[in-house]
Amino acid sequence: MADRGRIVYSTDVGRVCPTCGWPATDCKCRQSSETAPIPSRIVAKLRIEKKGRGGKSVTVVDGLPRNAAFLKALSQELKRACGTGGAVVEGAVELQGDLRERVRACLRMKGFVVKG
Predict the structure, then answer these.
(1) How many structural domains does the chain have?
(2) Which domain holds residue 49?
(3) Is residue 47 part of a domain?
(4) Fewer beta carbons within 10 angstroms: which end of the chain, N or C?
């Protein structure tokens, strides 16, 4: 019997997407984030975060459509308008520093509804 060596049960599930928890071959978040439609009315939410950043403040623009190309383009435009660094993180745009007023003005010029 020992020569068969077949696995009866295993806790190894293979590669799993850290965001949605599905297997990497059938990831749900990657499929929806790349092709998500952009709505005509976008409500952006602004907030400041300091936690976990050594006391440095970061302006976060959240509530945006989860379209990778849209987020990348918006991030580039906001970074140029504010003259600062930033990144797209988990469906939100993070900009270095407290830039709420500049970001609010830029988003309103683009026709977004801004809260916060």
Answers:
(1) 1
(2) 36-115
(3) yes
(4) N
Q: Which of 28, 95, 101 is nearest to 56 (CA)?
A: 95
Residue 87: phi and psi, rounded to 5, are: -160, 165
* Strand, coil or helix: 58: strand
Alpha carbons 79 and 88: distance in angstroms, whole number: 11
Residue 69, C-beta contacts closer than 8 angstroms, at least 6 positions apart: 34
Q: What angle do CA 94, 44, 37 make, to 5 degrees?
A: 100
pLDDT for residue 13 is more than 70: no
- Written as six digits, the tokens of 52 are 């976990």
Global pTM value: 0.69
What CATH number is attached to the domain comprising 103? 3.30.780.10
Residue pLDDT, tens place only, 31-79:
555 566 788 888 999 999 998 888 899 999 999 988 889 999 999 999 9
Q: Which amino acid is at 96?
A: Q
Note whether residue 8 is domain-resident.
no
Q: Residue 71 and residue 73: Cα distance in Å, rounded? A: 6
